[in-house]
């Protein structure tokens, strides 16, 4: 028992520890988008499905000893793929970021992850064969406990203290230990297989009829719904806060906790209590979906608690319908099919077929519908019709929320990097104002009146830090300006005849909307050069640009891609700046306090950081509150006007470690 349990625990721990490690490693190569994690989960679920299919075919087709031999050989072969360090050259071979993520993951961790994914169900099947009087399902609970510990320990014990490459090397060493432990369990199973023929027949050996297809489909549906809700609610968190391991790990840990509780002891799923909590969870998510402005802790708590209720209901009903041990591998195969279908729907299909985030309302409706399906036989006729009526009302409500995603918008687009919407709103006597929205965050606006359309607005108005910088640097000589992140192109309004503005934008749809729906680029007197691609990667490939001003304004929702704020990124920016050039960083953010990040980098590089907060009057219709940091050398500081040189200095926070490509930790900067 101890040997099997140790193998299962170690495999599950490594299986889920590698997920945030490898995702964080490749995140900078794909623009730091929150979709990177969604696509990673699709890959992990697909690998899990292949692993469970392998176990099912192995269990059904080969004799016990042949199972042992084949699996031992694959374990040894998998050692040849170590260490699990991703190669960035794979990412550059494909234009599609989605397929790029999948190819990089397959090359880096494909074989080890596949072997780890087989361990749980395979050890349970071998354990059931070796100890026929003992039920193996508690090993599944142990597996999920190890998975949750791996996830929870990562942002607390691993990420804050070790560079990501060291994390990968340490994981590779632990995988070697796992292979040795698993080979020992395989040897034990080999020895016990010889006694199987003379072992007395037990209850577990008796034939168990295969489950009906309807039952299998219900297993798939429940698992798929939980998977859809996991990924959709994770995206809801990471889109507008930050695509970081902590916010990946929390929902996935809740998902695994529900597995632990349900499979360890079915009594933890108190059916009446969770069914009563289900409508409250629906209402909580409704509050989030309707765009209510909530503090970060409340937003995270509402989504986390709601996800826990949804997963407990889905997984609790799965456990209530689990089959006899003889059909264990089929049961796990159906669960993995459901998980893979849910992940594929959210991570691959939804961005391709939807122009808005419809997958979360779809997942919520499926959850409500499946609850009625599992309760149908236990309900009296009047309750059946009452629940069907409630489902229709809820479906109408979700449809209404979905329509709000696109209603009254001029353009609605979506791709790997998120959803973009353009809307026209009336601003009284100033006429119509056109806005671009990324997720739920405004990323620029423009008045359409010919008299006002060239005027900079929002975070880029003349009162803002970047507005003051443009006006302060304006002189007789033309300027060369770099801009990381296009938005609607507002900064182009500051361009003068003779100036060159080089704008880097990763999302082709943003460039399309800035050109077709807004006129800042067309109206600018400066020469505008658009560069499509991740700003940092593009700058690394280019010769020195000698910018007078480099503006870092690359947002995804309300979060800043972390790879654009590391020491290595800052060094790259200063390579492209003149000695007296100015680096301007937009750190306006509802959820993250980026001051210590920029302060630590400026201090490390021997630069001065000036912080400029714009607090417009309540009636100001051109400006929004913004926070900009100017990072300069002494020569750059002298180039600024006197009133800007006297701005508040940003000093490092004691004990705060600067971010590098191998190390960043967002827990310390959440507001």
From TrEMBL:
Q: Where are the transmembrane segments?
A: 36-57, 69-86, 98-116, 137-157, 169-190, 211-233, 245-263, 268-285, 297-318, 330-350, 356-376, 383-399
One Gene Ontology term of the biological-process aspect is: polyamine biosynthetic process
Which Gene3D superfamilies does UniProt cross-reference here?
A: Vaccinia Virus protein VP39
Alphabetically sorted, this entry's keywords are:
Membrane, Polyamine biosynthesis, Transmembrane, Transmembrane helix
Sorted alphabetically, which InterPro entries does this protein's record hold? SAM-dependent_MTases_sf
Q: What is this protein called?
A: Integral membrane protein-like protein
> Which species is listed as the source?
Accumulibacter regalis
């Amino acid at each position: 028992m101890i040997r099997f349990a140790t193998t299962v625990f170690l495999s599950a721990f490594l299986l889920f520890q590698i997920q945030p490690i490898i995702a964080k490693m490749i995140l900078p190569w794909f623009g730091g988008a929150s979709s990177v994690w969604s696509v990673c989960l699709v890959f992990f679920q697909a690998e899990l499905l292949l692993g469970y299919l392998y176990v099912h075919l192995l269990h059904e087709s080969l004799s016990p000893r042949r199972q042992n031999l084949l699996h031992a050989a694959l374990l040894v072969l998998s050692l040849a793929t170590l260490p699990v360090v991703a190669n960035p050259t794979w990412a550059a071979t494909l234009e599609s970021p989605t397929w790029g993520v999948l190819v990089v993951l397959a090359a880096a961790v494909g074989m080890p992850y596949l072997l780890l994914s087989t361990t749980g169900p395979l050890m349970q099947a071998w354990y059931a064969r070796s100890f026929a009087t003992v039920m193996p399902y508690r090993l599944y609970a142990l597996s999920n406990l190890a998975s949750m510990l791996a996830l929870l320990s990562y942002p607390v014990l691993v990420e804050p203290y070790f560079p990501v490459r060291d994390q990968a090397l340490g994981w590779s060493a632990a995988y070697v230990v796992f292979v040795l432990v698993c080979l020992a369990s395989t040897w034990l199973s080999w020895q016990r297989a010889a006694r199987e023929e003379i072992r007395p027949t037990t209850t577990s050996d008796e034939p168990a009829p295969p489950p009906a297809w309807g039952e299998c489909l219900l297993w798939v549906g429940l698992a798929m719904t939980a998977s859809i809700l996991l990924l959709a609610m994770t995206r809801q968190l990471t889109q507008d806060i930050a695509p970081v391991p902590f916010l990946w790990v929390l929902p996935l840990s809740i998902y695994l906790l529900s597995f632990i509780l349900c499979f360890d002891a079915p009594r933890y799923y108190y059916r009446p209590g969770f069914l009563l909590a289900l409508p409250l969870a629906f209402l909580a998510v409704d509050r989030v979906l309707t765009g209510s402005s909530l503090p970060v802790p409340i937003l995270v708590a509402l989504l986390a608690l709601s996800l826990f209720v949804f997963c407990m209901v889905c997984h609790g009903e799965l456990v209530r319908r689990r089959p006899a041990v003889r059909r264990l591998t089929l049961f796990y195969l159906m669960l993995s099919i459901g998980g893979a279908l849910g992940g594929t729907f959210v991570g691959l299909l939804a961005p391709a077929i939807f122009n808005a985030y419809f997958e979360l309302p779809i997942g919520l409706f499926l959850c409500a519908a499946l609850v009625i399906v599992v309760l149908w036989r236990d309900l009296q006729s009047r309750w059946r019709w009452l629940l069907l009526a409630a489902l229709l009302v809820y479906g109408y409500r979700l449809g209404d929320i979905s329509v709000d995603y696109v209603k009254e918008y001029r353009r609605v687009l979506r791709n790997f990097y998120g959803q973009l919407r353009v809307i026209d709103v009336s601003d009284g006597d100033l006429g119509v104002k056109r806005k671009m929205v990324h997720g739920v965050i405004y990323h620029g606006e423009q008045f359409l009146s010919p008299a006002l359309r060239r005027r900079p607005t929002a975070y880029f108005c003349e009162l803002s830090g970047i507005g003051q910088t443009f006006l302060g640097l304006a002189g007789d000589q033309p300027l060369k300006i770099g801009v990381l992140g296009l938005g609607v192109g507002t900064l182009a309004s500051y361009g003068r005849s003779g100036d060159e503005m080089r704008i880097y934008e990763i999302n082709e749809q943003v460039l399309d909307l800035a050109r077709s729906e807004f006129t800042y680029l067309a109206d600018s007197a400066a020469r505008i050069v658009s560069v499509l691609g991740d700003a940092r990667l593009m700058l690394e490939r280019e010769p020195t640009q000698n910018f007078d001003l480099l503006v870092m304004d690359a947002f995804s929702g309300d979060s800043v891609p972390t790879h654009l704020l590391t020491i290595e990124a800052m060094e790259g920016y200063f390579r492209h700046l003149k000695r007296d050039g100015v680096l301007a960083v937009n750190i306006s953010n509802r959820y993250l306090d980026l001051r210590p990040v920029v302060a630590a980098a400026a201090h490390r590089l021997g630069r001065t950081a000036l912080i400029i907060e714009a607090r417009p009057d309540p009636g100001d219709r051109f400006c929004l509150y913004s926070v900009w940091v100017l990072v300069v050398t002494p020569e750059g500081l002298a180039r600024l006007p006197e009133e800007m040189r006297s701005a508040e200095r940003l000093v490092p926070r004691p004990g705060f470690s600067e971010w590098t490509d191998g190390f960043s930790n967002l827990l310390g900067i959440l507001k």
